[in-house]
Design a protein that fits this description.
Strand content: 15-25%
Oligomer: single chain
Largest sheet: 6 strands, antiparallel
Helix content: 40-55%
Structural class: alpha+beta
Distance between the termini: 71 Å
């Protein structure tokens, strides 16, 4: 910069004024000091600062309140060009400049310089060629000081705001610890995201089968709980769950991974929540979130995840204690009652056999054999119950045909007098406890054991919406009311008969599969329907 005496004095005064700009504590004060410096120090004519707001460049301060400065679209004229391209422009004669769109005919020349990415500093004069290259360079120096001050103020403001949000998130974490169920926890989480983090649209999703489903949604979000959000093999949620890494999306249409669940979503952030869920905040504006938002969202989801782990741990502990109490009750009833009775029968029959005639001795030996077989069956049923109770693995995806066919094959071998058939589609898959074959076996055996004639049992399955129906139908006399009642009981009340224990065991497996066991009315025989969630639902 080659300066004359006057320009050198302006430069020196500009450096002095810069300290005042740097000392400002608000952006408004920075802008006011900037235009005052442009007028008093740089001897600019009409000067104003335009700030970018929602697609427009809006004048926020000016040296002459009467000057007709007005908002411009951020792509129009010299002002828009300066902002969009980040380049300074010197206009010697507005009437001859291809981009000039002066707000008044009296505006003939000017300088326009960018203020970082926030706005534009512009000086205008009624005289042609009022400003020269030196004025432009001085204006650029002034704009640099303004940009640094605005950046500092906004950074300090953002830091204070982040600290406030973090402090409030700590309070949220404490409140989340008091939640006793998942529904309340997730509701509190989306509420906190709105009130603390100012995320207007947010939702929590969890994998169900091959897609993600919204579990909790903030009131303003254009979706509702239960909506499907996309498949697990694609989209941002699938990528986040697969990698365990959060994702910030500035422009949804331009992002190759994003597959928005709603047409209005333009930007968002997605954070993993546990092993199969996500927290997401979305907006209908581009670049609505930054790295700080992402970090705060991660803090929130960490608290939610920790609270959910505690809820699950409490539920597992409670379920385990219930199972142990139930198992104790089963062993007490089965082993103490049935074992004692059957051993008494065997002991009495053996004693009687010593004094009996040959014919009577044969009858007593048959009785001993039948009682021993019944005792073995009872012991096996107790062992099966313990096996189901002891298994703590979650439900898994199972093929219904693979669960049914081996059971049918073994029953045909063990019960040759029974007609046992199966009709199960090959592609039907469910989410169920891995002991599902045992439940099928218990229900099928129940139909055989209650029929004194030549029993007939048919096992069929079909998909009905989001559930699969597995039917076990027989032509026997039906299940006694006192044994059927175990379906309505929260605890086993009648285990004196092996069939009652088998029915209860089937219910235990179905319950642990998040399914339902029911008995539809039939004209003859008994039909038991097992309803299980399909793997795709």
């Amino acid at each position: 910069m080659s300066l004359g005496a006057d320009d050198a004095a302006k430069l020196e005064s500009l450096h002095v004024a810069a300290s005042g700009i740097a000392a400002a504590t608000t952006t408004e004060a920075v802008y006011e000091t900037a235009v005052t410096t442009a007028e008093d120090v740089l001897e600019f004519d009409v000067c104003g600062v335009f700030v970018h707001r929602e697609g427009e460049l809006v004048p926020v301060t000016q040296t002459d309140p009467a000057a007709p400065l007005q908002p411009y679209e951020d792509t129009r004229g010299v002002l828009g060009r300066t902002f969009q391209m980040g380049e300074s422009i010197l206009v010697g004669e507005a009437t001859a400049h291809s981009r000039a769109e002066p707000a008044a005919d009296s505006f003939r020349s000017g300088v326009s310089v960018p203020i970082g990415e926030t706005g534009v500093l512009q000086a205008i004069s009624a005289e042609p060629h009022y400003y020269d290259e030196t004025d432009l360079e001085l204006a650029e120096l002034l704009a640099i000081h303004v940009t640094e001050a605005v950046t500092r103020i906004r950074s300090e403001r953002d830091l204070r705001e982040s600290k406030r949000k973090i402090e409030r998130l700590h309070a949220v974490a404490t409140s989340l610890e008091t939640c006793t169920d998942r529904e309340t926890l997730l509701s509190e989480a989306v509420r906190a995201a709105g009130e603390v983090l100012a995320f207007d649209w947010c939702l929590i999703s969890r994998r169900q089968g091959e897609s993600f489903v919204a579990e909790a949604v903030s009131p303003q979000t254009p979706m509702t709980a239960g909506d499907h959000l996309g498949g697990v093999e694609n989209g941002a949620a699938g990528r986040v769950v697969e990698t365990g890494e959060p994702m910030l999306i500035d422009d949804v249409p331009a992002n190759p991974v994003a597959e928005p669940a709603h047409d209005s979503f333009r930007s968002g952030l997605v954070v993993p929540l546990g092993d199969d869920g996500t927290f997401a905040a979305v907006s209908d504006e581009r670049a609505a979130f930054d790295e700080t938002d992402l970090e705060l969202a991660e803090l929130l989801t960490a608290s939610v995840g920790a609270a959910y782990d505690r809820i699950e741990a409490r539920e597992r502990l409670h379920q385990r204690q219930t199972d142990l109490d139930l198992l104790k009750d089963v062993y007490s009833r089965v082993l103490r009652h049935n074992l004692r009775n059957d051993l008494n029968v065997i002991g009495g029959a053996a004693a009687a056999a010593r004094e009996a005639t040959p014919d009577r001795r044969g009858e007593l030996l048959d009785m001993i054999q039948r009682t021993a077989d019944r005792l073995a069956d009872t012991s096996e049923r107790a062992r099966q119950i313990k096996r189901v109770v002891d298994r703590t693995e979650p439900v898994r995806e199972l093929s219904v045909r693979r669960a049914v066919e081996p059971v049918v094959r073994r029953l045909r071998e063990a019960e040759p007098q029974a007609a046992i058939t199966a009709d199960v589609p090959s592609g039907l898959r469910v989410e169920a406890h891995q002991e599902l074959p045992l439940a099928v076996r218990c229900l099928a055996e129940n139909g055989i054991d209650h029929n004194d004639c030549e029993p007939s049992v048919r096992v069929t399955a079909k998909r009905c919406g989001a559930v699969a129906e597995l039917r076990i139908a027989d032509d026997g006399p039906g299940i006694p009311a006192h044994e059927r009642s175990v379906i309505q009981q929260s605890r086993e009340t009648d285990l004196e008969h092996g069939s009652g224990a088998g029915l209860w065991l089937a219910r235990l497996v179905v319950d642990r599969s998040d399914g339902r066991l029911r008995f539809p009315e039939t004209d003859d025989g008994t039909t038991v329907v097992v309803e299980l969630p399909t793997a795709e639902s």
